[in-house]
Write a structure and sequence with these properties.
The complex is a heterodimer of chains A (about 80) and B (about 350). With about 80 residues, chain A is mainly alpha-helical. Chain A is about 55% helix and about 10% strand. Chain A contains three helices and two strands, in the order αβαβα. In chain B, a hairpin with a 4-residue loop joins strand 1 and strand 2 (about 60). Helix content of chain B is about 35%, strand content about 15%. The chains are: A mainly alpha (about 80), B alpha+beta (about 350). At the A-B interface, helix 3 of A face loops of B.
């Protein structure tokens, strides 16, 4: 989340990927860094360690939401 | 009736308690007669009822004296049944309280709560940071037990509590099991209690040691690495468990690791057996690393006498880290766990103070 905010502050379109378990923490960090509305996309938890096949599946599922969030950035 | 002290005001009373060595070093709630009586009332028991003797000072633990500690620790009256169970657990001879308080080792009573009392006498956290700050019941219940060990048991650093350094869990060390989300039966059920029972298990434990493991969903045998890592953590060559052996020790699986082992088809008993089997070291290695505790020149030394010496529960947030708490492994009962059923049938709710029973 912090990376997403810092990149967005540089004027570069950014979207943070946040897993379900860490969503509240993502909100807290975004708020504390002064960008509560920084784009973010929710991932299932956990992602790490779940295997390449599953990670590809998650990536395919969230790709449209990531693109949509980035389009919002540009808009 | 406990001795009454007098002071000009609460600030003066606090300084007096500090100067007399009656605190844990942090500010306490002043145990005025009104506050203590309210806590005794909540217990539903007689103030002078004796629970037992606490070493090494051999002070007599009464309901009133435990209530004094509970007030000082910041407990709500709702917590009293759990505090009383924890005190009874350490008084039980199997816990070896006198020896445990006096040892140079860094051990503290870890309080594990199972059953409905997690909600009725709390909430006692089993989630993120359950052993850290921010959870009133966890913080004050563990602290109340410590204050009984100081003020009734007489354990004070450098004179009767000879822990060389101690560890932060000696301030407070209390958590619940996340029974609702665990893939395994509640720990107290596997220890022989009914699911509806509330049980406090107290075990002398070192501070939590982190065990890092990130699974690999593509490797069906990946869980074996997790078992290896847990065994290394709980009984590496630097632990008393590996050298002195036969002490009960604690493993707190985080939800992710619990699920990895569950998916591999392992029960709690299977996990304990697998870790027990891995917690062994060549005698020649021990002789070289720890010559003061050398043994024969062949074979292996097992850290545990059997899988039943591993307390395994699920608690905490979901992620890459589980926790292991190696132990002291000494005293007449070799660092045994003590389990006490929480008696809440006498508990008297104090209007406006006690939470409704869930």
């Amino acid at each position: 989340m912090r990376d997403g905010v810092n990149i967005a502050k540089l004027g570069i379109p950014a979207v943070s990927l946040v897993t379900e378990e860490f969503w509240p923490q993502g909100d807290f960090v975004a708020e504390s860094l002064g960008m509560p509305d920084v784009p973010r996309v929710r991932l299932p938890h956990p992602v790490a360690g779940t295997g390449v096949k599953n990670m590809r599946k998650v990536a395919a599922e969230v790709a449209p939401a990531v693109l949509k969030a980035l389009e919002g950035n540009n808009g | 009736m406990a001795d009454l002290l007098t002071a000009a005001d609460e600030s003066a009373a606090l300084e007096d308690l500090h100067s007399k060595g009656l605190t844990d070093g942090l500010p306490v709630i002043i145990p005025t007669p009104t506050r203590v009586n309210r806590m005794v009332l909540a217990s539903g028991l007689e103030a002078d009822m004796v629970l037992g003797t606490m070493g090494p000072g051999h002070g007599i633990a009464t309901i009133e004296k435990v209530a004094v500690a509970a007030v000082m620790a910041g407990c709500l009256p709702d917590y009293m049944p759990v505090v009383l169970a924890a005190v009874k657990a350490v008084i039980d001879p199997v816990f070896d309280l006198t020896e445990m308080q006096a040892t140079t080792h860094c051990t503290a009573p870890l309080i594990i709560v199972n059953g409905p009392a997690r909600h009725n006498c709390g909430p006692i956290s089993s989630g993120y940071g359950a052993l850290g700050p921010g959870h009133r019941a966890n913080a004050s219940i563990g602290r109340a037990l410590r204050l009984t060990m100081i003020n009734i048991g007489g354990g004070r650093p450098g004179s009767s509590d000879m822990a060389l350094l101690g560890h932060p869990g000696k301030f407070t060390f209390c958590l619940a099991e996340d029974e609702e989300n665990s893939p395994f039966p509640p720990m107290h059920v596997d220890l022989g209690f009914d699911p509806d029972d509330s049980v406090v298990t107290v075990i002398g434990a070192e501070a939590p040691h982190s065990v890092l493991y990130s699974g690999d969903g593509d490797d069906p045998k990946g869980y074996l690495s997790l078992l290896d890592m847990l065994a290394i953590g709980i009984a590496n060559a630097a632990t008393n468990n590996a050298i002195l052996t036969k002490g009960t020790a604690t493993i707190v699986l985080n939800p992710e690791h619990a699920e990895v082992l569950n998916k591999a088809g392992l029960t709690r008993q299977d996990i304990a057996e697998e870790i027990h089997r891995r917690s062994t070291m060549a005698q020649t290695t021990i002789n070289k690393l720890s010559p003061a505790f050398a043994g024969k020149d062949s074979g292996n030394r097992d850290a545990f006498s059997g899988p039943e010496q591993l307390l395994i529960l699920m608690s905490g947030g979901s992620g890459l880290y589980s926790m292991v708490m190696p132990s002291w492994c000494a005293g007449p009962h070799k660092n045994s766990a003590s389990c006490i059923k929480v008696e809440s049938e006498f508990f008297c709710e104090v209007p406006g103070l006690a939470n409704p029973v869930i």
